[in-house]
Amino acid sequence: MCGSIRSTRRMAPISPGNPARAADGIRLPKADNPELVEKLDTLLTEQEEKLGLDIGHFKIIPSIESAQGVLNCVERPGPPRVSWPSPSGGGLHRLDGIDRTKSGEELFSARNQVVWAAKAAGVQAIDSIFSDVSDMDALRAETMLVKRLGFTGKSLVNPRQIEIIHDVFRPTAEEIQHAWRSWKLSSGPGDGHGRHLHEGEDGRCSCGSARGQNYSGGHRLRHA
User: Mind listing the pLDDT tens digit of every residue in the chain (224 residues)?
Assistant: First the structure.
């Protein structure tokens, strides 16, 4: 569960009797300035020390709402407690020259930047909300799009949207089987060889190992 604040200057103190102690993190609006994220990081560290909690217990979910914020999340990913960056469709749509559409193609570049920043930092990328709670078909289409882009989740504005978002991000049987085969391959006994998993068009898989170099399906594999 995450809370939300509007300003680090008016942040309420967290105490054992405050419900905020049960929160996992804080969503920070307009987190386009790295110094603002770092200031919240300092405040949360102070509260964790007072409460006897591990440093980093509270996570920060920065809401990216400007062109500068998109660039900053790539160049300055923030402190370790930044859990995942999230582009804000509402904030980005307010920029001059951005026409809002249900298909969301106007946010394609910004979304890609946020995804790659998250991947580079080793954290999740959570997409922004879909504001039209009456159009479930468009919600599903947008959720499928952002999943293909690499997002691992999506924010929501209404409980009615939970089922569709969960359905899209729920792993398919094929994805689970592939992950299981990959895990078995990677967890096998180490012999100093590189390993590869090749899946053919018929769905059959072949596993192998290589020392130095090998060929599979016409592609050279090099062992690092």
Answer: 454 544 444 445 455 555 455 578 888 888 888 888 899 999 999 999 998 999 999 998 888 888 888 888 877 767 888 877 787 766 675 665 677 777 777 788 889 988 998 888 888 889 988 889 999 999 999 999 999 999 999 988 899 999 999 999 999 898 899 888 888 877 765 555 555 555 555 555 545 544 444 333 433 333 33
Question: What is residue 26's DSSP assignment?
Answer: E
> In one letter, which amino acid is 45?
T
What is the pTM (predicted TM-score) of this model?
Answer: 0.68
CATH match of 2-169 with 3.40.50.1980: no
Residues β-bridged to residue 198? 206
Please answer whether residues 167 and 179 qualify as being in contact, where contact means their C-beta atoms are separated by less than 8 angstroms.
no
Strands of the chain (E only): list them.
2-4, 25-28, 59-64, 86-87, 126-127, 153-154, 194-199, 205-210, 213-216, 219-222
Read off the amino acid at residue 204.
R
Q: Where do the structural domains in the chain lie, given as residue ranges?
A: 2-169, 192-224
The rounded distance, in Å, linking the Cα atoms of 79 and 75 is 13
d(CA 110, CA 68): 11
Q: How far is CA 159 from CA 38, 81, 126, 162, 202, in A?
A: 32, 27, 17, 5, 40
Closest Cα to residue 29, out of 75, 94, 123, 80?
Answer: 94
Structure tokens at 133: 């709670």
Inter-residue contact 217 to 211 (CB < 8 Å): no
